């Protein structure tokens, strides 16, 4: 129950990048006019690690970890979007899947 | 000479914060009693449920109906719902008086008290559905199911409420009309 998006890179000028804001390309969104639906939506970078850690709602510890964030605004004219995560995304996440949830919903 | 304060009890300074009980709760205009909502988060995510009313805390009271999709009388926050244009006419449905926030509050399960020899024997108290909940569920669902049966499109509605919402490939929510 999420939209697929890709983490394309950090907010940057040509020679400097600011890792606190991530740029996401959401599947199916091709222009700026289509992005307002996604403003404020929560997004998650889900990844696996070697060590098992406790996770809420489950008895058993699991290898799956998440970094939560939210979509803050659009970026450019072609439907890209800016997102801020609770912890900055690791650069190894570039090109990887980010899940854009359908909540907080406004429709 | 002792210091005698002018007021017996010091008065609290005025705070700009309002208590939760005094908050004003708004409701999206797309959500009216009888609207079919899609739950987007929580253990019932993907289910299509019927909206009954907004409670005093601002949370929405919904029901599956339980028979159709396993969602009981439940509270949810409107930000975790998508309102669809499908609406049922539940103006004739009477909800039991006791369905309010206090009724739905989480019950504190008593932690097992460990006595001398019984540390591993005392069972943990597990949540069980109370009889009043079952009564209310049956009472409300009966009326809602009657409303659906009287509706022109009852076959469609039964199937609709029983099915789950999901996003397939090339389906984008920003392009959808709910």
UniProtKB/TrEMBL annotation, chain A:
One biological process term in Gene Ontology: translation
Similarity comment: Belongs to the eukaryotic ribosomal protein eL33 family.
Protein known as: Large ribosomal subunit protein eL33
Keyword Ribonucleoprotein: yes
GO molecular function: structural constituent of ribosome
Cleavable signal peptide: none
Keyword vocabulary terms for this entry: Ribonucleoprotein, Ribosomal protein
Pfam families: Ribosomal_L35Ae
From TrEMBL, chain B:
Protein name: Large ribosomal subunit protein eL6
Ribosomal protein keyword on record: yes
Example of a GO MF term: structural constituent of ribosome
Compositionally biased intervals (Basic and acidic residues): 1-10
Record's GO cellular component terms: cytosolic large ribosomal subunit
SUPFAM superfamilies: Translation proteins SH3-like domain
InterPro entries: 60S_ribosomal_eL6 (IPR000915), Rib_uL2_dom2 (IPR014722), Ribosomal_eL6_KOW (IPR041997), Translation_prot_SH3-like_sf (IPR008991)
Subunit structure: Component of the large ribosomal subunit. May bind IPO9 with low affinity.
Superkingdom to which the source organism belongs: Eukaryota
Region described as Disordered: 1-24
GO biological process terms on file: cytoplasmic translation; ribosomal large subunit assembly
Gene3D superfamilies given in the database record: 2.30.30.30
Family: Belongs to the eukaryotic ribosomal protein eL6 family.
Biased composition regions of type Basic residues, renumbered to the chain: 11-24
Ribonucleoprotein recorded as keyword: yes
Pfam families cross-referenced by the UniProt entry: Ribosomal_L6e
UniProtKB keywords: Ribonucleoprotein, Ribosomal protein
């Amino acid at each position: 129950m999420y939209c697929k998006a890709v983490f394309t890179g950090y907010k940057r000028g040509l020679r400097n990048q600011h890792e606190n804001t991530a740029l996401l390309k959401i599947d199916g969104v091709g222009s700026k006019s289509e992005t307002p639906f996604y403003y404020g939506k929560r997004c998650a970078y889900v990844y696996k690690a070697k060590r098992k850690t406790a996770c809420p709602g489950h008895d058993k510890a699991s290898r799956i970890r998440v970094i939560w964030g939210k979509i803050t605004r659009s970026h450019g004219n072609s439907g890209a979007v800016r997102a801020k995560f609770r912890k900055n995304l690791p650069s190894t996440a570039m090109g990887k899947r980010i899940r854009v949830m359908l909540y907080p919903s406004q429709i | 000479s002792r210091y005698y304060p002018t007021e017996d009890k010091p008065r609290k300074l005025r705070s700009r914060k309002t208590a939760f009980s005094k908050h004003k709760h708004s409701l999206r205009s797309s959500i009216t009693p009888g609207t079919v909502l899609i739950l987007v988060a929580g253990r019932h995510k993907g289910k299509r449920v019927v909206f009954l009313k907004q409670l005093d805390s601002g949370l929405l009271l919904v029901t599956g109906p339980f028979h159709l999709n396993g969602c009981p009388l439940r509270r949810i926050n409107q930000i975790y719902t998508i309102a669809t244009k499908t609406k049922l006419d539940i103006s004739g449905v009477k909800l039991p008086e006791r369905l309010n926030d206090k009724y739905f509050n989480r019950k504190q399960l008593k932690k097992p008290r460990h006595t001398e020899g019984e540390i591993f024997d005392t069972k943990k108290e597990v949540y069980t559905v109370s009889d009043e909940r079952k009564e209310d569920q049956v009472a409300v669902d009966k009326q809602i199911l009657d409303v659906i049966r009287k509706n022109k499109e009852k076959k469609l509605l039964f199937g609709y409420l029983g099915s789950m919402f999901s996003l397939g490939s090339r389906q984008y929510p920003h392009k959808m009309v709910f």
